[in-house]
C-alpha cells in the first residue's frame, strides 16, 4: 500500500498513514466476553475513516494492471467498490478468469456469487433484449423500461 501511495502523497502524509497502519491493538468481543488484546499490522480497522479511501486507491492501482490484461473492447465502469466490465459480445465471460487471476495477485477476490453477465446486443424483437431489464446503480439499462419503473414508483408514492 505504501508503495502505491508514495508517488501520490508527500512525506508527512505517508508517515501518518504508516503510523495508522502499524501496531494496531485489537480485541474480540462476543456478547459481554472480551478476548486478550493482540497486535495486528494487517490493513486498517473496519469503520476507520481512512479505510475506504485507501481501499479505493488500492483498487484503482489494481485496475490499472487489469486494463493491461483485457481486450480493448471491454470497458469498466466503477462506482466505489462495484465494478462493471462491459462488452458487446461473449468474450467478457472468458476474460473473467484472467481478471480473477490479476485481482488475486493483489489479494483481492471477485465475488462469483454476485457476478452477473449481461450481453448487450440488438435483437429482432425488443422483448428479447434481456439487457434492458438489467439494473445498474438502481437504473434499468433500457430507457423505456426504466421510465416505466420510475413512473410506477412515483404513482405509488402519491
From TrEMBL:
It comes from the Eukaryota. Pfam families: RVT_1. Residues 1-145 form the Reverse transcriptase domain. InterPro entries: DNA/RNA_pol_sf (IPR043502), RT_dom (IPR000477). This is Uncharacterized protein LOC115229385. It comes from Octopus sinensis. The gene is LOC115229385.
Amino acid at each position: 500500500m505504501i508503495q502505491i501511495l508514495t508517488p501520490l502523497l508527500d512525506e508527512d502524509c505517508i508517515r501518518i498513514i504508516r503510523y495508522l497502519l502499524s501496531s494496531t491493538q485489537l480485541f474480540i468481543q462476543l456478547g459481554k466476553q472480551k478476548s486478550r488484546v493482540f497486535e495486528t499490522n494487517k490493513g486498517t480497522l473496519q469503520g476507520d475513516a481512512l479505510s475506504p479511501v485507501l481501499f479505493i486507491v488500492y483498487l484503482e492501482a489494481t485496475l490499472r494492471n487489469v486494463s493491461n490484461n483485457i481486450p480493448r473492447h471491454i470497458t469498466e465502469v466503477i462506482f466505489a467498490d462495484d465494478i462493471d466490465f462491459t462488452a458487446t459480445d461473449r468474450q467478457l465471460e472468458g476474460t473473467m478468469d484472467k481478471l480473477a487471476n490479476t485481482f488475486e495477485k493483489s489479494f483481492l477476490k471477485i465475488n462469483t456469487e454476485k457476478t452477473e453477465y449481461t450481453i448487450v446486443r440488438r435483437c429482432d424483437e425488443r422483448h428479447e433484449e434481456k439487457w434492458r431489464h438489467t439494473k445498474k446503480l438502481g437504473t434499468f439499462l433500457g430507457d423505456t423500461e426504466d421510465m416505466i419503473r420510475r413512473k410506477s414508483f412515483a404513482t405509488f408514492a402519491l
